[in-house]
UniProtKB/TrEMBL annotation:
Coiled coil: none annotated. SUPFAM superfamilies: PLC-like phosphodiesterases (SSF51695). The keyword Transport does not apply. Keywords: Glycerol metabolism, Hydrolase, Signal. This is glycerophosphodiester phosphodiesterase. One of its GO terms (cellular component) is periplasmic space. Gene3D superfamilies: Phosphatidylinositol (PI) phosphodiesterase. It catalyses: a sn-glycero-3-phosphodiester + H2O = an alcohol + sn-glycerol 3-phosphate + H(+). Residues 19-335 form the GP-PDE domain. Its EC number is 3.1.4.46.
Length: 343
């Protein structure tokens, strides 16, 4: 019945025009996030792009972690040799007590192992705790290129610069390092399989001067950019705000409720952004009840899976150009059914 409903909502679209499925931190609903295994799984189930959040090590190597605070995503606390490196830092106004990538060399980080960040919601993923390394951007690029050759389809990467103003404040500016690495990989045009995303503004503007790669301005439903470049994300969603974004970016990545509210009703944001010439890639579609709109929840267990395909279908019906999901298998199924391909 769901597939029939999806098909009824959409006309068939050419393959090249289909919204892209962006594997959020890989297939993070099935494997610990930001591991090569998570990215491999995402590619295996058909994701178009894999998404690494990027932070820097002490020796200036990009690695994939949700935050530079690695307390909850690695087994660092179990390593007595690093106990003295626990510290308190304020990152973008938030206090963190833990261990941070910028205090470790890559060689030291490689002695750690990833663990599931949401063990209560995804206990099945804890079976992989202690198995996988923290991957570098270079390893992720190599994976995408290798799997593109093996599968015969282009696997793109969608890196996010995490806390760029903070890293700049400690002498570790991200922009030139990232552009150089991507250009060296042969990705240096607006048609390359790359999007660079950020919640901040000034680093995207700096990137725009360095590269033709596509840039995405992320935005939350509340608050504003940590660099203070704009007063609020709400102001950035106005017609004037979207026009200003279009001067330095190619699209926006809004929190999903800015596209379709929890009441199931769509907003005008996609149409407004398209009028400004911007792509729209909302985040993040997750299967667990706790992350779903009330109408899509099944039962009362926050960790139980609800009707993710229904939520994705409502997002697609607004005309989005792609979406982030922790469950790319479901994302691909919903997208392809909506497009009428059945593939």
């Amino acid at each position: 019945m769901l597939i029939l409903t999806i098909l009824a909502l959409a006309a068939a679209a050419p393959m090249s025009d289909r919204p892209i499925v962006i594997a959020h931190r890989g297939a993070s609903g099935e494997r610990p996030e930001h591991t090569l295994a998570s990215y491999e799984r995402a590619i295996e189930v058909g994701a178009d792009f894999i998404e690494p959040d990027l932070v820097l090590t002490k020796d200036d190597v990009f690695v994939a972690r949700h935050e530079n605070d690695i307390t909850d995503t690695t087994d660092v606390a179990a390593h007595p040799e690093f106990a003295a490196r626990r510290t308190v830092k304020t990152i973008d106004g938030e206090r963190h007590d833990g261990w941070f990538t910028e205090d470790f060399t890559l060689a030291e980080l490689k002695t750690l192992r990833a663990k599931e960040r949401l063990p209560k919601l995804r206990p099945q993923n804890t079976a992989y705790d202690g198995t996988f390394e923290v991957p570098t951007l270079a390893e992720i690029i190599a994976l995408a290129k290798r799997r593109s050759k093996e599968t015969g389809r282009t696997i793109g990467i969608y890196p996010e610069t995490k806390h760029p103003t903070y890293f700049a404040s400690i002498g570790k500016s991200m922009e030139r390092r990232l552009v150089d690495q991507l250009h060296t990989a042969g990705w240096d045009s607006a048609t390359a399989p790359v999007f660079i995303q950020s919640f901040e503004v000034n680093n995207l503007k700096a990137l725009r001067k360095m590269t033709r790669l596509r840039l995405i301005q992320l935005m939350s439903s509340d608050g504003g950019p940590a660099d203070g470049a704009e007063p609020s994300y709400a102001a950035m969603r106005t017609a004037d705000g979207l026009a200003a974004i279009a001067a330095y970016a190619d699209g926006i990545g809004p929190e999903k409720t800015l596209v379709v509210g929890n009441d199931g009703k769509g907003t005008t944001l996609v149409a407004d952004a398209h009028r400004a010439g911007l792509k729209v890639h909302p985040w993040t579609m997750r299967a667990e009840n706790v992350f779903l709109p009330p109408a899509d929840r099944v039962g009362t267990d926050p960790a139980a899976h609800g009707r993710l395909l229904s939520e994705i279908t409502r997002q697609l019906a607004t005309g989005v150009d792609g979406f982030f999901t922790d469950f790319p298998y479901d994302g691909v199924a919903a997208r392809d059914a909506f497009a009428g391909t059945g593939k």
